[in-house]
Design a protein that fits this description.
Layout (H helix, E strand, L loop, with lengths): L1 H18 L21 H4 L12 H6 L10 H19 L10
Helix pairs in contact: 1-4
Length: 101
Amino acid sequence: MLELKQKVEKGVKLLNEKLGKDWIDKIDLEILDERRGTMCILAQLGNEKNVPYGVTDNVAIEYGLKMKDLCSTEGYQELTEIWKEKIAELRKPKFNLFRGV
């Protein structure tokens, strides 16, 4: 699980770099399913095929956007849950002591 969490962290950085930080607002957590090509993060961002973002299959695996074992139902469920938790965390408003927000 720790390895998947680290990959998701790398994936967040990659998506922030490629798309800006507002990509998290485009993800529907209710339907997010990394196992399904039409409901995964990249598909929800309008790029099911990965390549225009420079995300080949190997890169997708390295950055937690795909599993190496495509038949690993349990692995994909875990990956999806980690992404959901991370996106929910990123969506929480940050309190700024100096601005009151």
